[in-house]
Amino acid sequence: MRLLLVSDLHTDLHAATSIAERAPDFDAVVGAGDFAVRRRGLHRIVGVLSAIETPTVLVPGNGESAGELADACVGWPAAHVLHGTGVDIRGVPFFGLGGGVPVTPFGAWSYDFSEDEARELLADCPPRAVLVSHSPPLGHADRDRAGRHIGSVAVLEAIERTRPRLVVCGHIHDSWKVRSRVGDTPVVNAGPAGVAWRLD
Asked: What domains appear along the chain, each with residue ranges and CATH number?
């Protein structure tokens, strides 16, 4: 299965147009959150992305809520908005977790969850799925500009427990396009330019 991975578009219409134009060459598109900026601009960028007819898995980032993303995607038949939920595409299970984990310092606009809340949301993640998490696992594709690892313990635990076939994340801009591995699970911080990936 060929996947087009993307995260953190942050209302960049040029980047969104590029993703939409490339989507027909893939079996699925995976969007790991942060389509909006501080809860604004979501409908406009989803309007560009909604031209995609390829099955598309989306999770909310900390810049938009799950409800806001689901509302924006009404009328886009190819879109599957996941948050503590999953979907099968061509026999491959996908499971999603949105929001910032752990809670960010950004304040009330940020859609965030504690590690314990994330553990509950990840409880139903099946083994060997494609895990789409806005937040990266702690220690993997999660370094900020100061070199600190600021990913999620709960996401790391879920990976160790379920051994996903792939983890797609974003959130930490300084780690865009960084790849890592937890055991035999590849982790990709996708970034807005998009990453082509062949799922083994």
From this structure: 2-198 (3.60.21.10)
